[in-house]
Amino acid sequence: VLISAITGFSIERMEEKLGGNYPIIRSMPNTAISVGKSMTCLCCNRTGEKRIAIAEAIFNGLGTTIKIAEKQMQAATVVCASGIAFWMRLIRATTQGGVQMGFDADESMRMSMFTALGAASLLIETDSHPETEIDKVTTPQGCTITGLNEMEHQGLSSSLIQGLMASFEKITKSKCNNSRKRDSVYPFKEKTMKLFDVYPLYEVCPVKAKDVYVYDATGTEYLDLYGGHAVISIGHSHPHYVNRLQEQLQKIAFYSNAVENPLQQQLADQIGEHSCLHEYQLFLCSSGAEANENALKLASFYNGKKGL
């Protein structure tokens, strides 16, 4: 069996030299292999399926392994190999914040390192979800939720995702330029599905929002008069709005109109109370198409017709 750790050298190219009947396994460890904590990604050709356990045994002794499709190797390089640098930067930033709050650099780094280790261990050893663990340390109007919301206002999650995607685009374009035979997964830009332009688009790309404003990647501030989804009444990223969404997403993200939805009745009760229009009925829809469909349904109740 051949186990390759060469970045970007595809199984197809190795098969050109060795033949398709030779068991070939690609591995992508990261630098934490030096301390036995590597997250190593593995893929193989069809013949290598029978020998993949060999590679798993080797790299599980040096950390943890996961088997993926070869077409995902570039993305895995970003998440796992480049990911070491990304996590180092996060730990470094946390350390600097601790220094600014009054700790010595060594003290702050030790606290940052072992807090990061503890957070990862909670997920690994309990099979928990990050949001579940976040909920355990956030209290109403507390310092944790205040800090989290401010980080999101400043674009923490968005910046991380954009950084990952920038790395992925870079590695993919490099592969397109260097590969002798292009695989259909590699061209990142050339073969991208285009969006259908329903409306003329403004040349504004918001990356974060706060209160009644949105901001683009350069930090330019725009007053959001478009609104929608509670923004009009309480503003973007309002803690109450964010908390209610997070709480609901942990339970269920979608209801059909064909089942009971107590949240809708709660809304109807509050609207009725504040408007004093208890005799009215609340009609909810999520799109223009659904509005038309339900308007026809309502009309059928009035005129007794079952179809058009």
Question: What can you tell me about this protein's structure?
Answer:
50% of the residues lie in helices and 10% in strands. It contains eleven helices and seven strands. Strand 3, helix 2 and strand 4 form a beta-alpha-beta unit. It is extended and about 75 Å long.
Write out key terms for the chains shown.
308 residues; alpha/beta; 4-stranded mixed beta sheet; 3-stranded antiparallel beta sheet; extended
Please state the structural category.
alpha/beta
* Shape annotation: extended
Strand tally = 7
Tell me about the largest β-sheet: 4 strands, mixed
Q: Can you tell me the residue ranges where pLDDT is under 50 for at least 5 consecutive residues?
A: 180-190
The helix count comes to: 11
User: How much of the sequence is in beta strands?
Assistant: 5-15%
Q: Biggest sheet, strands in spatial order?
A: 1-2-3-4
User: What percent of residues adopt helix (DSSP H or I)?
Assistant: 40-55%
What is the helix/strand order? EHEEHEHHHHHEEEHHHH
Mean pLDDT: 86
Radius of gyration: 26 Å
Q: Give the end-to-end Cα distance, rounded to a whole number of Å.
A: 67 Å
